[in-house]
Each structure stands twice: as structure tokens, then as C-alpha cells.
Batch of 4 targets.
Target 1
Amino acid sequence: MPTEIDARITPSLHSENVKQLDGYSDDSVPYLGPVMEALDDAYLTLGKLHDARHLASKNQAWTPEQAVLAVSDTAGRQQQRLLSKFDKLSKTLDQQIKSMDEMLTGPLQQ
């Protein structure tokens, strides 16, 4: 099920963009599925951070500065989590590309 559009977040992070890539097909889904999952995670996380910022700004017990710091702390942790996820995904895709390239450029066996 596709992630709903959130106007607060850049559309470039929406996972549906992957389906518009040249060469996207049922055959490429196993390779691009993890990309779509990572983009969905980032997209949903940013939406939740926007929600948290809104709630923090309504908290009358906090000064505006405290609200910013509270959301910033959460955002920093989420950023590190997402960066780690994207880094692992990038390495996996690079390995898959290298493996397929070696397979395609290797000698044919009869």
C-alpha cells in the first residue's frame, strides 16, 4: 500500500517515484523493494517529526527554545538511524550491481 502524500515533505522522498524509473518492472521489484521501504521509512519519519514539532510548540510548559531542543534531539536520533539504513542499502545495491556486472561480462558457459 503506497504511503499517503504529506504536503509538509518533499515529494522527491516518496517511494512511488521509484516506480517511475526507467526499467522498473516486476523483475526489478526484488532489487528496488528495499529502496522503496527505506524511502517510506524516511518519508513517514519526517511526517512524525513534523507532528512532534507541532505538539511541542503547543506545550505551554516549554519555552520555544525547549520545544526546539526536544524535537531536535529526536530528529538527530532518527537522522542517524536513517543514515545508517541508507548507507547499508547503498552498499547492498553496489554489491548487487557488481555481482550482476560480473555475471553479464563473464564468459558464457555451454
Target 2
Amino acid sequence: MIPIFGLGIIIIILIELVRRGNTYYITSKRLIHEYTFIVRKISYVTYDKIQDLHLTQSFLERIVGIGTIHVDTAGTTFIELIFKGISNPFSIKRLIEKRI
């Protein structure tokens, strides 16, 4: 019983570290996603490259007031940036749309 409980605690700690490793910035010129956990990865998209924004919320995300914004860009067939687990996703999406 104790080893399973200990494994569960380790998994929860790792999930929280990964969550805290994501930082999102909305600047006057671009959107930036910085991921720092074991490695560091910085991705950005300038507003003139954004083709479409998608907002998704699961049932539980709606209850706690968070969501995910997917940013599609010109010239690629995949989603360029994903802002996961952000608070007030509708107001953030509107802010981004105003800057496009």
C-alpha cells in the first residue's frame, strides 16, 4: 500500500513541475510560449502570421474557469502554439483577436 501511495505522490509532484514549467506571454508584437522543465523551449508567433484561434474547454475546465487556446499559423498544417490551462480563456482569446 505504501509504495503505491508514494508513487502517486511522485506522479502528482512531476505533473505540477511540468505545469509550472509553462509560461505564456502576450506582447505587443507576438505570442510567446516558454517551457522550462529539464530543457528549455521557447516558441513564438507574430500576430501577422496567425490564421485562426480555437478555444477548448472540457467539462472540468469549465467548472474551474480554465481552458486551452490553440493558435494556427500561416504556412503550416499543425497548430503552432498551444496555451494550456489558462485562466479566463475567453478574455485572453478576445485580447489576442484585438491584436491580430
Target 3
Amino acid sequence: MRLTYIGLVIMCVAAFTMRGSAHHSHNAYEVTVWSNLEGIVKEIHFIVPHSWVYIEAKNEKGETGLWALEAAGRQAIMNNGVKPEDVRVGDRVKVRCHLLRDGTNGCLLGFVTPMHGDQARGHGIEKHWD
């Protein structure tokens, strides 16, 4: 009985201390092809597990629409040298990303280049967001 109790305690400790490593795949995105977009930032959400940037940009047909760009979590983005003030709502940005396979306005964000004209906030410097 005592051995069973000790085994149960060890399993519980292991279960609560192990870091979760599961993650969903990026199958919704065409990850073999980089696409370029340029637009105006409408919203930014630095959150966990994935941050989101929404920009107003034109698609390949020249139609303007709102694009949802999925990025890494807040800490991963900051670890890449990005500061929250680098890109703000209203800023023009260029992005390189992997488009959604279904053709809707969304992509897996790879890189962001601010085009806001403010050198102190990294104008023209491409940074990794995933």
C-alpha cells in the first residue's frame, strides 16, 4: 500500500511539474511560400499563446480588406528584439507571411518592417515576429 502511495505521489509531482510541449500545426497555412503584404495596422494584440496583428491591405486582386496575421506569443516576439512601441495602430507596415490555404485574408506572420518614418521606432528595419 505504501509503495502504491509513493508511486502515486511521484506521478502527480511529475504531471504538475512537466512543461507542456504540445502545439498545433500550421497546416492551415501555405508554409512553403512567402507572401508580401503592405498595409495600415488596425489592431495589435500581444498575447499568449499567439499574438495577432490586423492590417488593412490589398489582396492579389487589388481589393482592400482586413487581414488577420497570426504571430508568436508576446515573449517570443520580444525575445526577437521587438518592442511594443515599434509598431502601433495607424502605422504602415510591410509583412512577409504564409497565406491561409483557403484564400481568406489571413496569414502566419514571419517578418514585419515598420514604414512609419520614425527611426527611433525602427523604420525600415525588418524583425522576426514568429
Target 4
Amino acid sequence: MASTTHNAKDAAGSVMDKGKDAGATFADKAKDTASTFADKAKDTAGNLADKTKDAMSSATDRAKDLGKSAAHMVENATSRVGSGIETAAGALRDKGPHDGMMGTATSKVADTLERGGRYLQEEGLTGMADDLTGLIKRNPIPALLLGIGIGYLIGRALRS
């Protein structure tokens, strides 16, 4: 019976050793799986971040292109308005009175319209904004008073 007990102890020890080995193997595989999962999660997060950056860059580029396109369209429209004003000045000069005080007034109005039309064609809105900025810098107090006056008039108009 002693040998049976000894064989049972050996068998139990062998089972325990196999259980420990299986547990260690399972733990190693679990660690490897967790590590692999963590690596894949990091890669996915990195890829997502890269794709987000690319999308934002692309959207920014599209917005810049649209802004440039809109600015170009506005400049073209301003040039067309200037051309139309010049055409109106020519029509006024041709069809208006040529003699006397009315002829002089017609000629001056046509000249002014023609100069304004040329200015719009040559300078556009960008040039006008630059000229206005320069004018305000050269004359800050009158510009401030004019701004206050315009604000007052707009306020009264909106209150009514």
C-alpha cells in the first residue's frame, strides 16, 4: 500500500506540475495576447490621428482655395462694375447736353464717373481697402468723428 500511496503522490505531483506548466503557459499566452492587443490599439489610434490630421489639412487647403476663389470672383465683379460705370459715363457724355451750364455739369459728372470706374477696375476692393486704411492713418481724428457720426445715424435708423 505504501507503493500505491507513493504512486498516488507521484501522480498528484505530476498533475500539479502539469497544472503549473499549463497555468504558466496560459499566463504567458494571456500576456502576449494583451500585448498584441495593446500594440494594435496603439497602431489604430496612431492611424486614426494621422487620418484626422490629413483630413484637417485637406479641409484647411480646401477652405483656403475657396477663399481665394471667392476673393478672385469679387475682384472680377468689382472690375466689371468699374467697366459699367465707365460705360455709363460715356453714355452720359454722348446723350447729355453739350452746351451751357448743363453741358459743363454733365461733362464734370461724366469725368468723375469715368475716373471712378477706372479706379475700380485698376485697384479693386483690395486697393480701395488699402487706400481707406492709409486715409484713416493720415487723418485719425476726422475718421473717428466720421465713424461716431455714422454710428449715431445707424442707431437712430434702427431705433425707428
